[in-house]
């Protein structure tokens, strides 16, 4: 049963299996294990990034396509929910329409970019997607009447998903049973379902062809596969999953703006997580997202504690200052790449074969 659920793509490493189980259980019970607004927000962001990174891994890790337009589709999903809820009201109908319109727009744009750009060499395709993403971010900033411009859009969700909606007067394990908790588990179910769908895609005959194209495009073409068609389909599927990740982010934040979903920094974070977790694994998106976002969210607090602990040594205390958290995050990334050149998942799988 488990093999079928995971599309026969088992972890193939005891350590990896335990890590994935810990991630699954940790996210499933996060509201009860890690109480607090910040902890729950970090857990929700991890769920969003697991989908976003896994969708990008389908493009980069399995097909060998480098695209910088991934956050554009991420932003389209977020803006679809924000704009529809803001203009048509906080109803389930407007929410559904916003998601449907965002997915349709994503489908059309991904198809156009794929058909017109995937025939060129990889570096030129990357440059084209970067230009398109930059143009879309500028457009989102300037169409303030619809998108809110640089200020973004705040919007309301259906009452069932609001924190003010309480399902019980008595807390369960110290946690209020309210709309915020329901929204989190809606995100959890959506992330788990999409993760399993992506696993199924990459382990299907279609996914095997994508890997063949990644390894040797000319050989795949010679065998008889329409490389452009497969690469375009991969690009479209990846974009649709990224769009849904944007929908998840907007549902949780109840706000969206250019810096929230269209920032180039998000694209860099996605690339880092893919490298840390391991390209071409899907599982790497879960491991990498947890490690990276946990470090990004709590490294400053850890450094603050360490700096206070060594306050008797001024030089060391200054080096461990919370203001230098980016330095330490960069150092951790360099070390992870040095010791795990194929990513954490790749390294664990290779080690398990020895």
How would you portray this structure in words?
The protein has 354 residues and is an all-alpha fold. It has one domain: ABC transporter involved in vitamin B12 uptake, BtuC (Orthogonal Bundle), CATH 1.10.3470. Helices cover 74% and strands 1% of the residues. The chain has 18 helices and two strands. Helix 5 packs across helix 12 (227-253).
Give a concise summary.
The chain is mostly helical and 354 residues long. The protein is built from 18 helices and two strands. Helix 5 crosses helix 12 and helix 14 crosses helix 15 (283-309).
Task: Considering the chains and any ligands shown, give keywords for the structure.
354 residues; mainly alpha; ABC transporter involved in vitamin B12 uptake, BtuC; two-stranded antiparallel ribbon; globular
What is the total number of structural domains? 1
Individual helix count: 18
The CATH class is: Mainly Alpha
Strand content: under 5%
List the helices and strands and how they pair.
Blueprint: H1 2-5, H2 14-28, H3 30-33, H4 37-60, H5 70-88, H6 92-117, H7 122-142, H8 144-147, E1 153-154, H9 179-202, H10 205-215, H11 217-223, H12 227-253, E2 255-256, H13 258-261, H14 264-277, H15 283-309, H16 314-319, H17 325-339, H18 343-353
Antiparallel strand pairs: 1-2
Helix pairs in contact: 4-9, 4-12, 4-14, 4-15, 5-6, 5-12, 6-12, 9-12, 10-11, 10-12, 14-15, 14-18, 15-18
């Amino acid at each position: 049963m488990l093999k079928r659920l995971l599309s026969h793509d088992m972890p193939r490493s005891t350590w990896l299996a335990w890590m994935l189980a810990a991630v699954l259980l940790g996210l499933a019970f996060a509201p009860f294990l890690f109480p607090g607004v910040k902890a729950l927000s970090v857990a929700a962001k991890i769920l969003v990034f697991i989908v976003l990174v896994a969708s990008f891994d389908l493009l980069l890790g399995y097909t060998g396509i480098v695209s910088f337009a991934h956050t554009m589709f991420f932003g389209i999903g977020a803006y679809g929910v924000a704009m529809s809820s803001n203009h048509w009201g906080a109803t389930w109908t407007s929410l559904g329409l916003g998601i449907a319109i965002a997915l349709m727009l994503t489908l059309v744009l991904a198809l156009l970019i794929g058909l017109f750009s995937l025939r060129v060499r990889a570096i030129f395709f990357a440059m084209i997607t970067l230009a398109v993403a930059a143009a879309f971010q500028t457009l989102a900033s300037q169409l303030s009447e619809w998108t809110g411009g640089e200020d973004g859009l705040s919007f309301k969700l259906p009452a069932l998903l609001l924190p003010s909606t309480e399902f019980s007067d008595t807390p369960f394990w110290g946690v209020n049973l309210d709309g915020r908790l329901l929204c989190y588990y809606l995100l959890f179910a959506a992330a788990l379902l999409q993760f399993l769908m992506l696993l199924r895609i990459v382990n299907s005959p279609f996914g095997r062809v994508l890997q063949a194209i990644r390894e040797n495009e000319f050989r795949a073409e010679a065998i008889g596969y329409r490389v452009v068609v497969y690469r375009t389909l991969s690009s479209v599927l990846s974009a649709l999953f990224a769009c849904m990740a944007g929908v998840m982010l907007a549902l949780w934040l109840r706000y969206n703006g250019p810096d929230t979903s269209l920032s180039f920094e998000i694209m860099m974070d996605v690339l880092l997580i893919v490298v840390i977790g391991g390209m071409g694994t899907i599982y790497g998106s879960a491991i990498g997202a947890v490690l990276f976002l946990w470090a990004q969210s709590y490294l400053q607090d850890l450094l603050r504690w360490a700096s206070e602990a060594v306050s008797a040594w001024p030089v060391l205390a200054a080096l461990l200052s919370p203001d230098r958290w980016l330095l330490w995050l960069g150092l951790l990334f360099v070390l992870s790449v040095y010791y795990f050149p194929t990513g954490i998942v790749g390294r664990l799988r290779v080690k398990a074969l020895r």
